Amino acid sequence: MTGVRGEAVHAQERVVAACRKRGLTIATAESCTGGLIAARLTAVPGASAVFLGGAVCYANRIKTELLGVSHEVIAEHGAVSEACACAMAVGARERFRSDVAVSATGIAGPDGGTAAKPVGLVYIGVATAVGVRAERCQFLGSREEVRVNAVARALALLLLAVESPEAV
């Protein structure tokens, strides 16, 4: 998609525009992305009309205390899991009282991966009034490349949610 002057319109600009048009608010819950999703959203002029806030919850204890992710979810599935990404998104939506919330949890590397959960594995969750879902992503590259790709995918999923009339 291109803007008025022909430059590419970035996903975060489209997210903010769609939320402004529909009167929706957004919150974020981030682990491996360390606040980069929130940074991209708040870089857009006018984001203050739709972005309520975000939480960077790197430690499991903080995921539990701030977002309400249950100890059972972390013990049974791990912090890098579909269940945790969903719980993080739901927790952010509830705590910030937003219409939509996006979450990201994963292993950016270069260490920390296992055969079952390799470096580059990221789960991205999106919660709306209709429900919550998470997507499993496997990104290749350096730590920075994994994080940048995770942010791009999170913004794409967020855009799908806010542009879909039945999603919110």
Please provide a written account of the structure.
The chain has 168 residues and is α/β, with parallel strands linked by helices. The chain has a single domain (11-163), classed as Alpha-Beta Complex (Maf protein). It contains 6 helices and 5 strands; from the N terminus they run αβαβαααβββα. The chain has helices at 11-22, 36-42, 60-67, 71-77, 82-96, 143-163, and strands at 26-30, 51-56, 100-106, 121-127, 132-138. A 5-stranded mixed sheet has the order 2-1-3-4-5, sandwiched between helices. Helix 1 runs parallel beside helix 6. The longest helix has 21 residues, at 143-163. The protein is globular, with a radius of gyration of 15 Å.
The dominant shape is globular
Largest β-sheet summary: 5 strands, mixed
| CATH architectural category | Alpha-Beta Complex
Q: State the separation between the terminal residues, measured CA to CA.
A: 23 Å
Proportion in helices: 40-55%
Low-confidence stretches: 1-7
In DSSP terms (H or I, runs of 4 or more residues), the helix count works out at 6
CATH topology: Maf protein
Number of DSSP E strands:
5
Return Rg in Å.
15 Å
Q: What integer is the average pLDDT? A: 94
Helix/strand class? alpha/beta
The fraction of residues assigned to DSSP E strands is 15-25%
Secondary-structure element string: HEHEHHHEEEH
In CATH, what is the class? Alpha Beta
Say which CATH homologous superfamily is assigned.
CinA-like
Total tally of structural domains: 1
